[in-house]
Every structure is written in structure tokens, then in C-alpha cells.
Write a structure and sequence with these properties.
Number of strands: 7
Number of domains: 2
CATH superfamily of the largest domain: 2-enoyl-CoA Hydratase, Chain A, domain 1
CATH architecture of the largest domain: Alpha-Beta Complex
Helix content: 40-55%
Number of helices: 14
Shape: globular
Structural class: alpha/beta
CATH topology of the largest domain: 2-enoyl-CoA Hydratase, Chain A, domain 1
Length: 322
């Protein structure tokens, strides 16, 4: 993948080195001057700086990577991992919601139902996709496709990437909370394997609306939380500028989700984030999906539902005062 053009604050030392490297290479090509020694030295320094920066990211810095505008989105992974994807539209009740895409596809020769939350790359696409914030009809479309998957014995793969469900007046009038609640209830009892993966943002009920699964996977620079850091900061500190403190308090670190039993596995990303190498990130996801779909496919329906129930009963640690 081409070198990212968008630079986060903590990446500036690395970008400065990459700019110097580019200048040296251009000077070498234009003037036919041998600067191989200088280029090798900068390349070594770039690799060391990469490892220093990306091996010690704070929760807030990981949130920033999860929101990176060049980060791969659901359709990017669908195109790389699945074959014969046929997108289906509409909830059969109100309208189409482009913030959620879905339809049947094949994975390793087997039919599956793929459902994902999709963001846009530019203003036009973001308006079409509503910035990845689904309306209630998006969740109802997702449930329509999930019921179809259950009917035809197709495993479900849910790709999560949303800051949250759309909170506008229209969405409230059409009962977005009810749509999410119905999905949570129905997904808990669907008689087919479900694997969900958080590829970027996993915000609140907007993520849970397609997130109840037998196995939850998450990329290492993604987050899955009951609230965004900015929202938490606005409530607790009365100021969104404390978002980094909120990210720490919320433990927005993918490894914490495995510790608490929310996720089964953290998927490795290329150094610097999934946008650095889509093929590598897609292969990481493909390998995990293969393992979990095979494992879940060996279970009887009754055992599948029993394990799903136990998974969600065990999440979290609770203390009661006498």
C-alpha cells in the first residue's frame, strides 16, 4: 500500500525522517550522486523509530489509529477475503441504509452471510454512508439478512466499524434504540455460528447492534467501548479535551477486552496500523475467521447456543455490597 499521507501528531518524528529519505532519493536520482550510505542510515533510523512509536502506544493514540482516514473499511476487507459477494439492500420496512452493507458471499468455498458497517473516504461518500453511523433501518436490514442466514444454515460474519448509531431526530422517531435492542435479543438466539470483528471503531450500542457473536475478534489498534472517549470526557470532566484521560480510564486497549472475556482474540496489524498494508491485515483476519468458523461449525446447535449464553453471562466482574 502507498505511504499514508495523513499524519497523526505522535507520528511526526517518523514523517520527518521519511521526508528526509525521500529528499535524499530524489537528489540521488537527479544528480547521480552516491548517497547509499546516508540512505541506509536513515532507513535504519526509520525502522527503529517505527518500533519505538508503535510498540508503546497509549490507549488514546490507538483510538486515533482506529479512526485513521486511510484505515481499511468493511468493503476493503470483504473484497480481499470473500468471493462472490452480492450486496442486498433495504430493510423491507422503510428504506436502504448505506451505513450498513451486507449480503451472501463465499469464504473458503462455503456460503456465508457478511454484514459490515461502512464509512466513506470523502465528503460525498461520508454523506452517503452517514459517516458510518447506522439508522434504525440499517439494523433492521442487518437482522433481515441474519434471519436469511439462519434459514439457509449460513454462518454470519459481522464487521464492526462505527462511532455509534445515528442519534438524529429521524432515527429516534423510527426507534433506533428498539432496533438495536431487537438485534441484540435475536442474535443471542440465532441458530447459526456468528463471528464478529472490530476493525476500527466499536462505539456503544451502535456496535452491539451487529456485535452479539459466538466469537468476537478485534484488531490491535481498534477499540470497543460503551462510549467514545470524547463522550466520556464530556460527562465526567465536563470537557472533551480530557478525551485522552477518558481513553485511559475506559481501558481502550484491545488486550483488555480479552482479559475481561469480551473478545476471544486480538488480531495483529502491520507495524504502524492496518492502513500500512491492507493485504497483511486482511490475511490476519482471514486466518482467524477460518479457525473460528471451523471450530464453531463442529458444534451442535444446542451446544452453540449454550456456549454463546455462557460467554455473555461471564463478561465482567461484579461486586455487591451487603
Amino acid at each position: 500500500m502507498e505511504k499514508p499521507q495523513y499524519t497523526l501528531d505522535f507520528e511526526k518524528p517518523l514523517r520527518d525522517l521519511e521526508s528526509k529519505l525521500l529528499q535524499l532519493e530524489e537528489m540521488s536520482n537527479e544528480s547521480n550522486i552516491d548517497v547509499e550510505t546516508e540512505i541506509a542510515a536513515i532507513e535504519t533510523k526509520i525502522e527503529a523509530t517505527k518500533r519505538t512509536i508503535y510498540s508503546n502506544l497509549t490507549p488514546w493514540q490507538k483510538v486515533q489509529l482506529a479512526r485513521h482516514p486511510q484505515r481499511p473499511y468493511a468493503l476493503d476487507y470483504i473484497g480481499k477475503i470473500f468471493n462472490d459477494f452480492q450486496e442486498l439492500h433495504g430493510d423491507r420496512l422503510y428504506r436502504e441504509d448505506a451505513a450498513i452493507v451486507g449480503g451472501p458471499a463465499t469464504f473458503e468455498g462455503r456460503p456465508v452471510m457478511v454484514i459490515g458497517q461502512q464509512k466513506g473516504r470523502n465528503t460525498k461518500e461520508n454523506l452517503l454512508r452517514n459517516f458510518g453511523c447506522p439508522h434504525p433501518e440499517g439494523y433492521r436490514k442487518a437482522m433481515r439478512l441474519m434471519r436469511m442466514a439462519e434459514k439457509f444454515n449460513m454462518p454470519i460474519v459481522a464487521i464492526i466499524d462505527t462511532p455509534g448509531a445515528y442519534p438524529g431526530i429521524g432515527a429516534e422517531e423510527r426507534h433506533v434504540a428498539e432496533a438495536i435492542a431487537v438485534n441484540i435479543r435475536e442474535m443471542s438466539a440465532l441458530k447459526t455460528p456468528i463471528v464478529s470483528v472490530v476493525i476500527g471503531e466499536g462505539g456503544s450500542g451502535g456496535a452491539l447492534g451487529i456485535g452479539v457473536a459466538d466469537a468476537v475478534l478485534i484488531f490491535e489498534n481498534a477499540y470497543y467501548s460503551v462510549i467514545s472517549p470524547e463522550g466520556c470526557a464530556a460527562i465526567l470532566w465536563k470537557d472533551r479535551k480530557y478525551a485522552s484521560d477518558a481513553a485511559e480510564a475506559l481501558k481502550l486497549n484491545s488486550s483488555e477486552l480479552v482479559k475481561f472475556g469480551v473478545a476471544e482474540e486480538v488480531l495483529e496489524e502491520p507495524l504502524g496500523g492496518a492502513h500500512r498494508d491492507l493485504d497483511l491485515a486482511a490475511n490476519s483476519l482471514k486466518d482467524a475467521l477460518s479457525r473460528y468458523l471451523k471450530k464453531l461449525g463442529r458444534l451442535s446447535t444446542s451446544k452453540l447456543l449454550e456456549q454463546r449464553y455462557e460467554k455473555y453471562r461471564k463478561i465482567g466482574i461484579f461486586a455487591e455490597n451487603n
